[in-house]
Amino acid sequence: MKGPKLNRAMPVRFEFHDKSDGELNKGWNFSPDKMPKQGSKWLLFTEMAIPTNGAFETYRGSYGRQEATVENLDKIYKVMELHRGQQ
User: Fold this and answer.
1) Phi then psi dihedrals of residue 65, to 5 deg
2) Mind listing the pLDDT tens digit for each residue in 11-56?
């Protein structure tokens, strides 16, 4: 991936929408079950490797957080292979 090497444990600001249209889902309410399970592993995508107010914002909110499953890792590796050597 591109960018500087970051700590494996990093503070992340959680927003539960994809930010594509700029609006929150109407009627949506937070509940603790929406948070990742403690100890779970995630792939995080950021546009800038610069924290804002002490935390990183992921690309388009929830879209920039993908669980680190074998399937998701395979998808990432395939995309990286397709774009190898490009900038």
Assistant:
1) -120, 115
2) 777 766 656 666 666 777 777 887 888 888 888 888 877 888 888 8
User: 64 to each of 8, 15, 27, 57, how far by Cα in Å?
Assistant: 16, 10, 23, 9
Q: Which of 34, 25, 86, 87 is nearest to 65 (CA)?
A: 34
Rg of the chain taking only CA atoms, in angstroms: 14
Cα 52 to Cα 31: distance, rounded to the nearest angstrom: 24
44 C-beta neighbours (distance < 10 Å), count: 15
Contact between 37 and 77 (Cβ < 8 Å): no
